[in-house]
């Protein structure tokens, strides 16, 4: 289905063409900020007036007079306002018929993509032997949501977990474990991610203090990179233990990921440097191979290089990311590459993309590569989130904490619910609350993590939306309507202003998703759903459903609302509940 916005866009472009023999590609259509002025607004006359040297109002009038009879029929009012805006108000009957089509559409009115894109969403990407922390929570939640969006729209999505599973840190960890936990490395004793983490910390201390240990660790790295059997065996074991720890969290968050960590690109690293060298793009700086890129300078104003091979011959994070980018462009043949990584790495990604353009791998007219950045999670003190012991909060504790808090809220609210029911509900609501509080904040902003705030029943929270959903289900249950039958013969008829307002908002669902595909800002979808719940509540306050003459139409409006709400929540990665 075409969105209403796209339909107005198309119609106005045609009208400008017929009025002035002029081809414009953007008719500047947007939803009206206030419904009493209209449903959609067109701002093209203001810009065109400067080009054509005609007053914007005169221009607007002529454009309106050239609009097709079809669009005029669909509108109850087309008004020219202020300096020359054109405001369109749709007739209730047209809007009703549109909602009927939307109800019959599995995609709820979203256009089938004219070209299915291959979209890589890289997210989560924690480091082996280091437990996931709250900094990884945002990447996992935002990345999963973006992947769900494109999957729903029918694209071919590859969800990649670029875990940090290679590098010099393994040298010290393996050396340490050979000394302090040999049975683990021999496979005689089992271990977990938490133990790995503590060994990692201890190894780091030893590395910084003990010169002999440092030397042995560096040797261990060389052996690992040379493929020494014992070193590889130890490395694999460490990765396996970490993987199990990560999987537990992904299960809780219901986030699916394909692991393709840094080690995957190891065989290509030498070739990356060779190719830059062959193209004459390498400069030596203190023995390290560097790529200098225009426009990148350090604080002193000196050129800032991208280092792709260290003076000791080792490759690094930058080399691996270049290899990953090349692989995604040429082997995966991605149309769009989205890396969901904290804002602290913005400069790294800018330089990475600049280098890939410079060598000719990345052609922005063919492949869209984006760093989807996000801000920090803060504690109630306004500083980076820390546990009481001062360590960065571990993600698993954070999630279990939310589930526990949700359980307390539910036990009070639903005293008659069984133990089992409370357990299921609190799991869903705890996780939903964490996800929603993250997604509903502008992703570039830092946000304060607060269980109390995220578990509120009022305001822009997960529970508020879930409650609206539960309410609609209650209405359907109460009327005992046979929805299948209703769908086959009844239709939506909008009359009351609250019905029209809800109907218009429902029809805008696909537009919201469309905008989301461009700006990749999940809070816009959250805002949309929040307004949907509010509009539904207003409708339910103003319009009786059960036993009214409009019962059938209103039940269908409820049905469409619950479908859109459910689908929207699913894209955010939230699960719904049956009671609350
Ligand atoms: N492992 C890194 C970290 O935890 C994030 C990796 C981001 N992705 C990338 N392609 N560099 O900081």
The small molecules bound here are: arginine
Shape, principal axes of CA atoms? globular
Number of strands: 14
The CATH C-level name of the domain at 462-572 is Mainly Alpha
Q: For the residues shown, what is the average pLDDT?
A: 94
Number of helices: 23
What is the structural class? Answer: alpha/beta
pLDDT < 50 stretches: none
CATH superfamily of the domain at 462-572: Isoleucyl-tRNA Synthetase, Domain 1
What Rg is obtained from the alpha carbons, in whole angstroms?
A: 28 Å
The CATH architecture of the domain at 462-572 comes to Orthogonal Bundle
Return the CATH topology of the domain at 462-572. Answer: Isoleucyl-tRNA Synthetase, Domain 1
Helix content: 55-70%
- List the strand order in the largest sheet: 7-6-5-11-12
């Amino acid at each position: 289905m075409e969105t209403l916005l796209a339909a107005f866009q198309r119609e106005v472009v045609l009208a400008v063409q017929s009025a002035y023999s002029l081809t414009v590609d953007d008719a500047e259509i947007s939803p009206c900020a206030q419904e009493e002025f209209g449903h959609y607004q067109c701002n093209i006359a203001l810009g065109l007036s400067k080009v054509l040297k005609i007053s914007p109002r005169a221009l607007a009038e002529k454009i309106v007079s050239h609009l097709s009879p079809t669009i005029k029929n669909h509108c109850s009012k087309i008004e020219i306002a202020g300096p020359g805006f054109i405001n369109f108000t749709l007739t209730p009957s047209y809007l009703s018929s549109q909602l009927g089509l939307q109800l019959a559409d599995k995609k709820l009115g979203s256009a089938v993509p004219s070209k299915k894109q291959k979209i890589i969403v890289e997210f989560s990407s924690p480091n082996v032997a280091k437990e996931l922390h709250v900094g990884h929570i945002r990447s996992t939640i935002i990345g999963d949501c973006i992947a769900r969006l494109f999957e729903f729209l029918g694209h071919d999505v590859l969800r990649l977990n670029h875990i940090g599973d290679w590098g010099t840190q393994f040298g010290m960890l393996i050396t340490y474990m050979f000394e302090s936990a040999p049975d683990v490395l021999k496979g005689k004793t089992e271990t977990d991610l938490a133990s790995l983490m503590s060994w990692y910390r201890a190894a780091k201390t030893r590395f910084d203090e003990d010169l002999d240990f440092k030397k042995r660790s560096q040797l261990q790295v060389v052996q690992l990179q040379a493929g020494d059997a014992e070193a590889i065996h130890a490395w694999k074991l460490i990765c396996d233990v970490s993987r199990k720890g990560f999987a537990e969290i992904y299960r809780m968050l219901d986030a699916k990921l394909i692991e393709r960590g840094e080690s995957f690109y190891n065989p290509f690293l030498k070739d990356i440097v060779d190719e830059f060298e062959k193209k004459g793009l390498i400069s030596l700086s203190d023995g390290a191979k560097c790529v200098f890129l225009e426009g990148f300078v350090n604080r002193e104003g000196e050129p800032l290089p991208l280092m792709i091979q260290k003076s000791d011959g080792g490759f690094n994070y930058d080399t691996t990311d270049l290899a990953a980018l090349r692989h995604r462009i040429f082997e995966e043949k991605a149309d769009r590459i989205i890396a969901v990584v904290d804002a602290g790495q913005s400069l790294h990604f800018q330089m990475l993309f600049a280098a890939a353009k410079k060598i000719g791998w990345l052609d922005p007219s063919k492949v869209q590569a984006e760093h989807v950045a996000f801000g920090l999670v803060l504690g109630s003190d306004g500083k980076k989130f820390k546990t009481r012991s001062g360590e960065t909060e571990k993600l698993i504790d954070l999630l279990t904490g939310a589930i526990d808090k949700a359980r307390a809220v539910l036990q009070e609210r639903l005293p008659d619910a069984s133990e089992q029911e409370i357990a299921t509900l609190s799991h869903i609501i705890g996780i939903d609350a964490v996800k929603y509080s993250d997604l509903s904040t502008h992703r570039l902003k830092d946000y304060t993590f607060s269980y109390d705030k995220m578990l509120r029943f009022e305001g822009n929270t997960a529970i508020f939306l879930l409650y609206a959903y539960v309410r609609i289900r209650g209405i359907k249950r109460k009327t005992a309507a046979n929805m299948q039958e209703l769908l086959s013969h009844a239709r939506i008829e909008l009359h009351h202003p609250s019905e029209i307002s809800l109907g218009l908002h429902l029809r805008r669902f696909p537009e919201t998703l469309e905008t989301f595909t461009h700006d990749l800002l999940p809070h816009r979808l959250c805002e949309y759903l929040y307004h949907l719940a509010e509009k539904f509540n207003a409708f339910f306050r103003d319009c009786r459903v059960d036993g009214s003459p409009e019962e059938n139409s209103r039940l269908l409006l409820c049905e469409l609302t619950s479908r859109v709400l459910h689908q929207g929540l699913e894209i955010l990665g939230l699960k719904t509940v049956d009671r609350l």
